[in-house]
Amino acid sequence: MIAHAPLPAFEFVDKVSDKAGKVPVIVAVPVARPAKDGDAAVAGPLAETLAALDLTALGASESAGSVRVTATGAAPATVALVGGICPEASADEFRDAAANVAREVDGTGARLVLALGIETAEQASAAALGALLGAYRFDRYRTDTRPAIDSIAVLVPARLLKSASAASQRVRILATNTWRARDLVNTAPNDLTPAEFAAYAIKAAKLPRVKTTSLDLEALKAGGFGGHVAVGQGSINPPHLVKVAYKPSKAKGHVALVGKGITFDSGGLSIKPAKSMETMKSDMAGAATVLATVIAAAELSLPIAVTGWLCLAENMPSGSATRPSDVITIHGGTTVEVLNTDAEGRLVLADGLSAAREEKPDVLLDIATLTGAQLVALGPEIGAVMGSEDVRSEVIAAGDAAGEDLWPMPLPAHLRPSLKSPVADIANMGDRFGGMLVAGLFLKEFVGSTPWAHLDVAGPAYNERAPHGIAPTGGTGFGLSTLLTFLETRAS
């Protein structure tokens, strides 16, 4: 069973001092901030440390978002200089700067004080969230661990203390569930099989007004979930479909979320190149995000019903694996000719979308690491959104508010004929060019008239590069903040 590392304690404060004790203090300040500004809120040796530094001179060559830890001699405090931050900086800039600071000082066991010159409650919340996300670590498989950050204090003006503190619960819940999604993505696939994922989801979602249901292989066969059965039949680890339903009293509507949960994707008989398999433990990021979103909505007691569908399978080659040219039947009766077994995510999503729409939600969203074409089109940091124009616009707006980059993409009718099959209702592959859009057109077949949007997050869900801003190397939790903001907007 997955065990999560605890988040550091954090608080908003309007005054701070480095109290005598065994925990070292690191204070983060903007490099261009004159030492005298704001020092009334920083007492004791911390103030002495700041006064001893010519921050303007030190910061002359600092780039935006950069962090440099400066030794302070005999003083009991250390200073982390943060480039590119000023009172006019956006909330996202404060968030990413705080994340960079936390990542830089992780391993010290210190109390981190963010004295970044915050002027608004939005900046305060963003800095706190950034610090908590930057402090993320995944040590499950390491024997050489370092001390985590002891605690985080965000320095705000006294006039903002009440409003900033009121937002602390959301900040912590969002950070905790982002860590949850990241941990799931980073867990090795031998430890996170579909059955293990299902068991984890059932345990994690034991919350008031949340009910979970898990369908195993026999139940999937009986229910006609041919996508799950076909994708999972080549593996010794059978598929599961988990429904996690949060239903508050007097709910203001109902949103269904469907997540792709391929716990490892070899490509099946249409096998991937070896190099392409190295990150395929991340192919369940959509399901991890959906689970984390439903849990966050329940923990925040949002007045909106949310049903999450986790479409879990392992895609492996074997003598029992699905073959190219096999015909399968998706839940609801649509037949699909499987032309490429590496286009498996859309098959389990088709099952999930069909089951979700039967409950007649007001809106239906799915999120998936679905196509390599998404990376080709938009790169590693921007997700794509397709679907009903009004819902697509809502999702884009939620992403903007959440600080996650999403881009609207079309579903061109002229690409739909490429999905025609001579033997079944539809094929699982079409034109190579525009492959991300073709995948969206395939999914559209299974939502009926339900307002719907599809998020393809193949790039931003897993960061293969060096950490930057709130994105660590590995699982990022991308999409959770957008989905939660979408739910909050709908519930308001």
Automatic annotation (TrEMBL):
Cofactor(s) essential for the protein: Mn(2+)
EC number of this enzyme: 3.4.11.1, 3.4.11.10
Entry annotation: catalytic residues: K272, R346
Every Cytosol aminopeptidase domain range: 340-347
UniProt: Mn(2+) 2 binding residues: K260, D265, D283, E344
Keyword Manganese belongs to the record: yes
Main location: cytoplasm
A molecular function (GO) term: metalloaminopeptidase activity
InterPro entries in the record: Leucine_aapep/pepB, Macro_dom-like, Peptidase_M17_C, Peptidase_M17_leu_NH2_pept, Peptidase_M17_N
HAMAP family: Cytosol_peptidase_M17
Main function: Presumably involved in the processing and regular turnover of intracellular proteins. Catalyzes the removal of unsubstituted N-terminal amino acids from various peptides.
Record protein name field: Probable cytosol aminopeptidase
